[in-house]
Amino acid sequence: MKTRIKLFATVLIVLLFFTNCVKRVDNGKNKQTKKIKFGIVLHGGAGNITPQNLPPERAEQYRTKLKEALLTGYNILKNGGSSLDAVESAIKVLENSPLFNAAKGAVMTDVGTCELDASIMDGSNINAGAVAGVKHIKNPIVAARKVMELSPHVLLAGDGADTFAKEIGLRTVPNSYFYTPRRLKQFKKYKAQKKQTSANENSSFKKFGTVGCVALDIHGNLAAGTSTGGIPFKKFGRIGDSPIIGAGTYANNQTCAISCTGQGEYFIRNVVAYDISALMEYKNLSLKEAATRVIMKKLVKQKAEGGMIGIDRNGNIVTVFNSPGMFRAWATDSQSPVIKMFKTNN
Length: 346
Known about the structure:
Elements: H1 2-24, E1 39-47, H2 56-78, H3 83-95, E2 116-122, E3 127-134, H4 140-150, E4 155-157, H5 158-167, H6 181-194, E5 211-216, E6 222-228, E7 249-251, E8 256-262, H7 264-269, H8 272-283, H9 287-301, E9 306-312, E10 317-321, E11 325-332, E12 335-342
Parallel strand pairs: 3-4
Antiparallel strand pairs: 1-5, 1-11, 2-3, 2-6, 5-6, 7-8, 8-9, 9-10, 11-12
C-alpha cells in the first residue's frame, strides 16, 4: 500500500512539473529562451512604399523620424515608465512630423480640410479611448487618451470631440495648421484630375497611411495606439479603422497589442486587430501565426491591402503586411533599434 502511495505521489509531482513547464513556454508557441522585459514597435503607414518611390534622401528623413519616435517611447520603458506613456509619446512625435499621414502631415478631404482620427487602448484593464473626424486638436492621440481617462465614453467624434478637448485644456489649433505644401500640392492635383475623371478611378491617390505604436512595459502591461488623417480626399465625414477599437487598435494583457494600417473599410469589416487577439486566445495560435493568417490570407483573399504591428505578453514582436512596403521600427531591452521600410531588409 505504501509503495502504491509513493508511486502515485511521484507520478503526480512529475505531471505538475511538466504542466508548469508548458505554461512557462506559453503553450509551446513561444520559442524565446529569454523573457523580454520590455519592448516597443511602431509603424508609419503601409502602402506603395518602394525604393523606386522613395529617393534615398527622403528615405533617410523617414528613418531619422522613425528612430526619434522609437527612442522616445523606448526611453520611457527603459526608465520604468508605462506602456501607455510610451505609446502616446512615440505617436506624438509622428503626429508632429509632416512626413506621415497623421495630424501635421495629414492628407486632405474632398473639400480641402483635414479630419483626424486616433485611438488608444490599455491592455491591463481593456479600457480605451478614441476621437474621430476632429479638425482642431493638435495631437489627436492625446485627446484619445483623455477620452479614455476623463470620460465615461470610448469614442467622441467631430465638433463634440473638439469641444471636449478645449474644455479639458488640450492644445487646439486652426485647421490650417495641418496643411503642408506637400498635401496642398496633392489636393490641387486631385481637383485638376477630378474634372477629367472620378478620383475613385485614379489609382495615383490610392495610398495608405497611418501611424501607430504598441508596447510592453516592465510591469507586464500592454498598450496600443493609432493615429491617422484617413484616406486622401475622403467624403461625407468618412471614418476608417484607426479610431475603431478592435478594428485598427487592440490591446489585452492576456494576448497582445496591435495597431493596423491599410484599407480601413476591410479592417473594420474583419475586426482585424481583435481577430488576431482572438485567434491567440481561442485557437492557441502564436502572434505570428495569427497575424499571418489574418493579414496574408484573409485580407489577401478579399484583395485588401495593409499591415499590422504587434507585441505579445512575452515580448515577441511581429510586423506583417501584404502591401509593397510599410514604415516600421522596433526595439526591446535586449535588441537594438531596427528600422525598415520595404519588403527587403531595408
